[in-house]
Amino acid sequence: MTEPNPKADLLRYLQAARDALLWKLEGLSEYDVRRPLTPTGTNLLGLVKHVAGVELGYFGDTFGRPYFLEEPPPPWWYTQDAEPNADMWATADEPREQIAGLYRTAWAHSNRTIETLALDATGHVPWWPEERREVTLHHILVRVIADTQRHAGHADIVRELIDGSVGLTKSGDSVPEGDRDWWENHRRRLERVAREADDS
Questions:
Q1: Per-residue model confidence as pLDDT tens digits over 124-153
Q2: How far apart are CA 189 and CA 5, in angstroms?
Q3: N- or C-end of the chain: fewer Cβ atoms within 10 A?
Q4: At what angle do helices 96-116 and 44-59 cross, to 10 degrees?
Q5: What SS3 class is residue 128?
């Protein structure tokens, strides 16, 4: 049995969600990565943009390691006077490569913070209420993993609605095998069960 390594375990789950979010962009048009597919506008590129900001804020500013030192933060950054939800969608002038690149840069910045600090190291979340601002790296890691995995789930559904691609990875090995007919039969069965439950 190997020695427990809580930090490595937490980082592994965070990285799995990061990878899942980025692969959901692959092979899609600029329209499809920006396309709002829920009443609140959820879209794939906006999810990636959001989690990039989450990581840079929580693993950067919170621990006195701000990312935006050499250059000003983008207009959607929390310290700017941004419109509500500005981090949840990409303008036509924000290339997919730029947003995905920012997310990869955020990973590297976050990983350096995680490697440098102990799990019980304390930081301060500047946008939280004063009485809750003091946090540990462990707390922030758990919070960011939960947030990123949640948004990876959103991306799963949005990508499936766009072109039917499913799964945690490109291989789709986390989903039972079945051709289009199998899945359509499965979906019809679930619809029938739902109606039967509603009638009872």
A1: 999 999 999 999 999 999 999 999 999 999
A2: 44
A3: N
A4: 30
A5: coil
